[in-house]
């Protein structure tokens, strides 16, 4: 799918309750003179169906913000609410359920299982949820078609290009129909042309799957495809 086609499909965000609410969140690593203030009193609201791009220099706090939103880290102050769940108060069982049922992640390191085929990699989350084989296979086929890899279902990651591997990773992230997709530099290991294709794909799948997305990137193409661009500088939200 071309970037132009994806851009034409941009839609207005829903006016319902926020999918993501970051409320006066701070996160510090270390203490004393060695303390690193990764987030400083950050507040952010993301509506359902919205694609928000997070930008900022390395060390600005982007990954920390993604991690507290996705339940991989906890804030020292403030609260994070995702899909009505206060993530910052969830216990381990609640966090597991959040990452299984609500939030999925896409990273610049694809994280595919080398010995599994593309279809088997995409199907892993569905197997963990004990989805019946027929339903699982139908969902996997749909997602591989959606990311343009319907003809590569039986190939292993080592037989695919970097861009194709990232497409598989995106399909896997969508397997359980997450409400929120969190992506950290998803084109960081790809050449510029492949990165443009992946960015357009993310825009398209967000709309097709009706998913909310928070994407950290340096790529200006992704910024042009976003509903909104949020900028962090030294842990402070400087532009929304």
Automatic annotation (TrEMBL):
Q: Where is the ABC transporter domain positioned along the sequence? A: 20-240
Q: Which GO terms describe its molecular function?
A: ATP binding; ATP hydrolysis activity; transmembrane transporter activity
Matching entries from SMART domains are given as: AAA (SM00382)
Q: Which domain of life is it from?
A: Bacteria
What Gene Ontology cellular-component terms does the record carry? Answer: membrane protein complex; plasma membrane
The UniProt record lists the keyword Transport:
yes
Q: Which InterPro entries match?
A: AAA+_ATPase, ABC_transporter-like_ATP-bd, ABC_transporter-like_CS, ABC_transpr_LolD-like, MacB-like_ATP-bd, P-loop_NTPase
Question: Any idea which UniProt keywords this protein has?
Answer: ATP-binding, Nucleotide-binding, Transport
Identify the PROSITE patterns for this entry: ABC_TRANSPORTER_1, ABC_TRANSPORTER_2
Stated name of the protein: ABC transporter ATP-binding protein
Source organism of this protein record? Cellulomonas uda
């Amino acid at each position: 799918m071309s970037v132009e086609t994806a851009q034409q499909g941009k839609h207005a965000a829903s006016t319902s309750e926020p999918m993501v609410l970051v409320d006066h969140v701070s996160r510090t690593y270390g203490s004393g003179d060695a303390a690193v203030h990764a987030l400083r009193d950050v507040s952010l609201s993301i509506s359902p169906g919205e694609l928000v791009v997070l930008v900022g220099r390395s060390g600005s706090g982007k990954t920390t913000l993604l991690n507290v939103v996705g339940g991989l880290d906890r804030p020292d102050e403030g609260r994070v609410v995702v899909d009505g769940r206060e993530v910052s108060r969830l216990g381990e069982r609640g966090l597991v359920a959040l990452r299984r049922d609500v939030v999925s992640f896409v990273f610049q390191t694809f994280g595919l299982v080398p010995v599994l085929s593309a279809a088997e990699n995409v199907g892993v989350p569905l197997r963990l949820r004990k989805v019946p084989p027929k339903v699982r296979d139908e969902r996997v086929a749909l997602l591989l078609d959606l990311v343009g890899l319907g003809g590569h279902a039986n190939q292993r990651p080592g037989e695919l290009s970097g861009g194709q591997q990232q497409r598989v990773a995106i399909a896997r992230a969508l397997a359980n129909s997450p409400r929120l997709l969190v992506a950290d530099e998803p084109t960081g290991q790809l050449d510029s042309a492949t990165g443009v294709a992946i960015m357009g794909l993310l825009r398209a799948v967000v709309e097709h799957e009706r998913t909310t997305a928070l994407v950290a990137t340096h790529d200006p193409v992704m910024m042009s495809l976003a509903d909104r661009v949020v900028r962090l500088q030294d842990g402070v939200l400087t532009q929304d």
